[in-house]
Design brief:
The complex is a heterodimer.
Chain A: E1 2-7, H1 12-28, E2 32-37, H2 40-43, E3 53-56, E4 59-63, H3 68-76
Parallel strand pairs in A: 1-2
Antiparallel strand pairs in A: 1-3, 3-4
Helix pairs in contact in A: 1-3
Chain B: H1 2-13, H2 21-53, H3 56-65, H4 71-82, H5 90-99, H6 104-116, H7 119-128, H8 131-153, H9 163-171, H10 184-226, H11 233-236, H12 243-251, H13 258-270, H14 275-287, H15 290-296, H16 302-326
Helix pairs in contact in B: 1-2, 2-7, 2-10, 4-6, 4-8, 6-8, 6-14, 7-8, 7-13, 8-16, 10-13, 12-14, 12-16, 13-14, 14-16
Classes of the chains: A alpha+beta, B mainly alpha.
């Protein structure tokens, strides 16, 4: 089971990003738990300066807003 | 060209009278909306390209690895100006800077300019007030960032950071350079590949602020058509000493993004508000807000937030008064 974390803030664009990640993971059938993290202290280990960011199994795979296609690609890469 | 199209649409096709309040209101609305949307698309695209070329990680690494003899404040302010509109990254950015060993003053330079000068504010100003005012606004934003960063650095404010941030500063982790292709050529190629994404983002930014833009222009248009000119002169003309401080203090807690405020301010100026007062008001609305203070609470003590906001507010008031004295409108 994969562990996917969405590092985000509570602003509109970030929430939209989190929703599309959750949707894409669900549709892909990937066995994964997806969690939203909006506490800066918990983000520290990943050294990110741009939100939202995506972490899969403790590996930082993207920072900043990325397109849905790119998210799909990243998720597919995990299957 | 846009004006021609608008006049044709409103007066000939819809058939409104150009001298009636309704006609001039609708004309103003259509013209401003079209113009602003086009400029907004263009500026967002341009800023998007700039951002892809200078990603924030690269900026931080540059600032922390070069001895810059004072120019770093100016550079941080410029970088702050070109980073994107969404303010939700400000905390991770702040922490990233602190971790990179960048002095607090330089971080403040960045933090002041970043919300103040952004693609939406630039596009809106260029679309409503024209180039000259836009240049003054951007110049003031960068100046404020540079100057106040230098000023704040003198007070050794590090002691007022939250404890956990102070600890970060002590460990001062090495900055990771991976993910950053170093050669300019490589980066150029990367930017070219990202053009479609940048264009999509520009569209996204435009779409997300569109409701505010339209609402702002609609209110502006109504005032344009129905409020008699000179209406505000009595209260907010420039010989009233309290005009600037009052406008700024009202504006600080406001969280209306630039998009909604600027078209309204444009009309205020047409109706007799002094330009310096208007500029100061816009800077305060765009640059400082209550939600931002709440976010900063996480990394700073309340005292530091007060110092930060207080200094910026005071500086904007001084700038506004200065403009009123120097611009004769």
């Amino acid at each position: 089971m994969k562990n996917i974390k969405i590092l985000m803030s509570q602003c509109g664009c970030n929430i939209a990003f989190a929703e599309s990640v959750e949707k894409i993971v669900k549709e892909s059938g990937l066995d994964a738990s997806v969690s939203r993290i909006d506490d800066v202290v918990q983000m520290l280990p990943y050294n990110v300066m741009t939100l939202p960011a995506l972490v899969i199994d403790e590996r930082l795979v993207s920072t900043g807003k990325i397109s849905e296609d790119k998210i799909k690609e990243l998720i597919k890469g995990e299957i | 060209m846009i004006q021609l199209f608008t006049d044709n649409l409103v007066y000939n096709i819809i058939g409104l009278d150009g001298s009636s309040p309704l006609g001039s209101t609708i004309n103003f609305f259509v013209y401003d909306s079209l113009k602003i949307i086009l400029i907004l698309l263009f500026i967002s695209f341009l800023m998007g390209l700039l951002n892809t070329f200078f990603p924030i990680e690269a900026i931080r690494n540059f600032l922390s690895s070069h001895r810059l003899y004072g120019i770093q404040y100016f550079l941080a302010a410029i970088f702050g100006a070109v980073t994107p509109f969404c303010s939700c990254s400000s905390i991770p950015l702040f922490i990233g800077f602190v971790r990179g060993g960048i002095p607090l003053g330089v971080t403040f330079s960045f933090l002041i300019t970043s919300p103040l000068v952004n693609e939406v504010a630039i596009a809106m100003l260029a679309g409503t007030f024209g180039l000259k005012v836009t240049v003054i606004y951007v110049g003031s934003g960068v100046f404020l960032g540079t100057f106040l960063g230098m000023f704040l650095e003198r007070f050794k404010l590090e002691r007022f950071l939250s404890d956990w941030v102070k600890n970060l500063q002590r460990t001062n982790e090495s900055v990771n350079n991976d993910a950053m292709p170093c050669s300019l050529k490589q980066r150029g190629v990367q930017v070219l590949q990202k053009i479609p994404q940048v264009a999509r983002d520009a569209l996204g930014v435009t779409r997300s602020v569109l409701p505010y833009v339209l609402a702002g222009i609609a209110i502006g248009a109504l005032m344009h058509g129905y409020v008699p000119s000179g209406f505000f002169e009595e209260y907010l003309s420039k010989d009233k000493w309290f005009a600037v401080p009052l406008a700024v203090i009202l504006a600080v807690p406001m969280y209306a993004n630039a998009a909604g405020v600027i078209p309204i301010v444009e009309v205020l100026v047409q109706k007799g508000v002094a330009l310096g007062t208007a500029l100061a008001f816009m800077m305060a609305v765009v640059g400082l807000s209550l939600p931002e203070a709440m976010l900063l609470k996480k990394v700073m003590t309340l005292k530091l937030i007060f110092v930060f906001f207080g200094t910026v507010t005071a500086a904007i008031i001084v700038l506004g008064i200065g403009y009123n004295l120097s611009i004769s409108s």
